[in-house]
């Protein structure tokens, strides 16, 4: 927590605001990992999800949370993401973490299948302890749209400490690259624009490492 102690005054500045949320939507350029996914029989969404969540754990500022009025740093994540069910209504998929990419993808696909077949809202997250609930980030994908902004829901306006991510339609960017709209919502007391830049660099590094493994 040494890094957080250095920015305690920044946290106190933003935390007393009605909404300390920092929202940023931008065009994210990445190595085009889709051909590799096709060759490996891996779905691009789940590979992207793995790269994003691995990056969250490696950029410390994204690991800070507020629990019982105190700032804590999480050491693990429970992957979760939104899906649509058979009626095209939103539902939530959640699964246990795995460091192995193929196992991570398999668990994610099974969770997606389970949640997409539920007519009622999946309330599994309600069984989590307050600490476990903080060991999440909120992820949604809108693959049909090349959106330019998004407003993420926040349970408590003054406490957006769990980061929210969204990404949209992939498009070719040339020279072996792809581009997509990407949105980040974070507590500005923890995360600045520079840390979002670090996250973006780490996502690209994670994808490159996967393809070279």
Task: Report low-confidence residues grouped into runs of 5 or more.
Answer: none
Number of helices: 7
Structural class: alpha+beta
C-alpha Rg, in Å?
17 Å
Give the strand content: 15-25%
Mean pLDDT comes to: 96
First-to-last CA distance: 32 Å
Helix content: 25-40%
* Major sheet attributes: 5 strands, mixed
Q: What would the principal axes of the Cα set say about the shape?
A: globular
Word description of this protein:
It is a single chain. By secondary structure, the protein is of the alpha+beta class. It has seven helices and nine strands; from the N terminus they run H-H-E-H-H-E-E-E-E-H-H-E-E-E-E-H. The protein has helices at residues 2-6, 8-15, 34-40, 44-58, 101-116, 130-134, 193-212, and strands spanning 21-31, 64-67, 70-73, 80-84, 90-94, 138-141, 164-167, 171-174, 177-187. Strands 1, 6, 7, 8 and 9 form a five-stranded mixed β-sheet that branches. The protein has a two-stranded antiparallel ribbon with strand order 2-3. It has a two-stranded antiparallel sheet with strand order 4-5. Strand 8 and strand 9 (177-187) form a beta hairpin. The longest helix is centred in the C-terminal third of the chain and has 20 residues, at 193-212. The mean pLDDT is 96.
Topology:
Blueprint (H helix, E strand, L loop, with lengths): L1 H5 L1 H8 L5 E11 L2 H7 L3 H15 L5 E4 L2 E4 L6 E5 L5 E5 L6 H16 L13 H5 L3 E4 L22 E4 L3 E4 L2 E11 L5 H20 L1
Parallel strand pairs: 6-7
Antiparallel strand pairs: 1-9, 2-3, 4-5, 7-9, 8-9
